[in-house]
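job 3f2a | input accepted
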Amino acid sequence: MTEWLRVFKYPSVGRVTYDRYENSCHHQIFPKLGNRKISSIKGADIKELLNECMRKGYSYSTTKKAYQLLNMFFHYLELEDMIDKNPMRNVDLTKKAIFLSSQGKEVKAKCDEITVFTPEEIEQLKAVADILGHTATEITELYYVKRDSSKLEGLTDEFNL
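job 3f2a | predicted structure (161 res):
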């Protein structure tokens, strides 16, 4: 993997990214898989490595970087016919909320306020969406999340948004 990093990744990524790749190899990947023959590594081994990162308290982004690096590496090996089967094919990264929850960390909401619509407001949104050719979800995001009603001016005067 070190050779692959040096030959294929070093010339194609920035210095900070390459340093992070190297760090991920040395601290997350090699301690668990470094002494193994590549052909002997199975999806369960990789999933265990990722679970271990989670148990040890590594951040989600650090664990995700190890996952991405392994995915790129095994994809390369598969394309070059160096392995028969890609062990990453059936390995999913744990969802961020589950990952953080398992570490006792709070998953923070992306916004502080939730707007609940009445059935009448929903019907008004649908009507506006039909006029503008957008979905009600797009209109809601535009008006309530981005707080930008400039594209709605004049078209929605008869609606109570």
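job 3f2a | The chain has a mean pLDDT of 80.
job 3f2a | closed
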